[in-house]
Every structure is written in structure tokens, then in C-alpha cells.
Amino acid sequence: MIKVAFFDIDGTLLDHSGERSVFPKSTKAALAALQRKGIKVFISTGRSPAMLGSVGRDLPAVRDLFPFDGFCTFNGQLVLERDGSVIHRLAHDPQEVLRFITLAKQHGLKCFVLEEELSFPITDCPEIRQHYEWMGVPCPPFYDSSRLTEHPVIQFNIFLPLEKGMKILAPLEHIEITSSGFDVLDIIPNGGGKETGLSAVAKHYGILQEETIAFGDGLNDVGMLRWAGVGVAMGNALDEVKKEADYVTTPVSDDGVKNALVGLGVLDEGDFCLES
Fold first, then answer.
1. Cα–Cα distance between 150 and 41 in angstroms, integer?
2. 63 or 230: which leads in pLDDT
3. What tens digit of pLDDT does each residue of 186-199 get?
């Protein structure tokens, strides 16, 4: 019996394939049906908590799309209940942060560091400025490493293809590299990943691993799809992701979330109430 469901955002809950971003009515109805059955609904994303305040196109803030029970953010490194209570936190080692900054400056990487609440660029570039413009906030000053004593760094983001990023960052021994696509790399602490967030949520609520289900479409979703009792890849997922899933559903644009939950027997048609 499933007791908690985890969902990636872009390409899983939200359809960005057209001119406008869409949160399908069938998906919203499915999430509501899960909660009515007592199943907790968590987001599991590479985004920071600050980025849950923006979708980027045509939709309200992610937090306002649905009354989620909680959020696994930073690829599982910071897990929050809906009220902001911290379930789990995993930060980069301060010395590894300093080594990363040195490499970033040496190679002129287009990147920024993310603390729990704030983020700062290390170098200047159009991509960095566009990122903050997309978030609707001014681009902050360059990162000051003196902040490390009081503000742990949870994640780095780099605008770089994966293969090149792995080569440049090879000297760093305590990191993992993941990505949701678009040549944007998420650099997380060694031992991290969305699966660590899922595990923390399950432990917090006394839920067994086999009582979890997770939905995703990107490379940074692979770990959680492997870990979850049932891992569901969206029909629009990368082929590498589909190979790791227990179940492949239809695309997000074709009622993928609803179809999987019904097909797997987690919900049935009678559980749904489509509302505007």
C-alpha cells in the first residue's frame, strides 16, 4: 500500500512542451485524490526553496499550484515539511566549496552557489543574469566565501555539458554531478541525491521503502526511481530514465500521472473529481 508519493516538477507535474506552461487538470485531480486517500504528496526537485516561488511561464508559484505536504529540494539535500520545518539537510564540506570556487575561477565556469535561502554567482555571464531575471529578482553580488562560517552551501549549479563538467571537476573528491537537462549541472555533496530525500521522508513518517512511489523524467530522477518502491518514468522521459523505471506512463501532456496511478492500482477512476 502506497503511503507517500514523490513528484519531480518540470516534465512531470508541469508540461512545458507548448507555448504556455501547463499543470494538467488530471494531474491536479490525481494529487487531490491521493491526499483524500491519506497518501502524502511531496515534490522532489533540483530547485532550491526560493525557486518554488516561480515556474517561469504563465503559472502561479509552484507552492501555490497545490497544497503539497512537503518539498525535497536541492536534489534531496534539503527536505522541508509544508510549514518549513526541516526534515533533512546535507551541505557541502566547506573546504570542498573553496576548492570548487578555485576551479570555477580558473576555468571561467558559468556557475553560482546556493545556500539554503540565497544564491550567488561566482562569475558573470548572460546565463546567470537571465536565471535571476527568470526568478524575478535582481542578480546578487559575487559570492563571498566568508559566508561559509554561518551559511552552508547546499548545491552548485553550472551551465556546462555533463561530459565537460565531469572532466573539469574531476579533482573534487566529495561531490556528485547530476542534471535535469539543458546543459545545467547540479553539483551535490557525495552521498546525496533525490533518493536521500525520499529516504529521509520515509524515516521521518515511519513509512517503509516499499510504501513509496516516485515520478520523474530527468537524469537527476534516476536515483529516486531506483530507490522508491515503485519508480515511474513519464512518457516524455529520457530513454536512460525509462530503462531504470518500474513503470513507464504516458507523457505529462497525455495525463501521465493519472494514467500511472490508475494503471498501478494506486487509484481508480472513482477516486477522481476533475475540478477547474
1. 32
2. 230
3. 999 999 999 999 99
**Pseudo-torsion of CA 237, 242, 245, 249, nearest 10°?**
60
Q: Where are the domains of the chain?
A: 4-90+193-271, 94-189
**Could you tell me the strand order of the sheet in which 119-121 lies?**
119-121, 111-115, 153-159, 184-189, 175-181
259-269 per-position pLDDT tens digit: 999 999 999 99
Fold of 4-90+193-271: Rossmann fold (3.40.50)
> What residue type is assigned to position 131 of the chain?
H
**CATH code that applies to domain 94-189:** 3.30.1240.10
Burial of 56 (0-12, 13-18, 19+ CB in 10 A): middle
- Rounded distance, CA 64 to CA 49, Å? 13
CA distance 239 to 145: 39
The SS3 of residue 257 is: helix
How far is 84 from 261, CA to CA, in rounded Å? 28
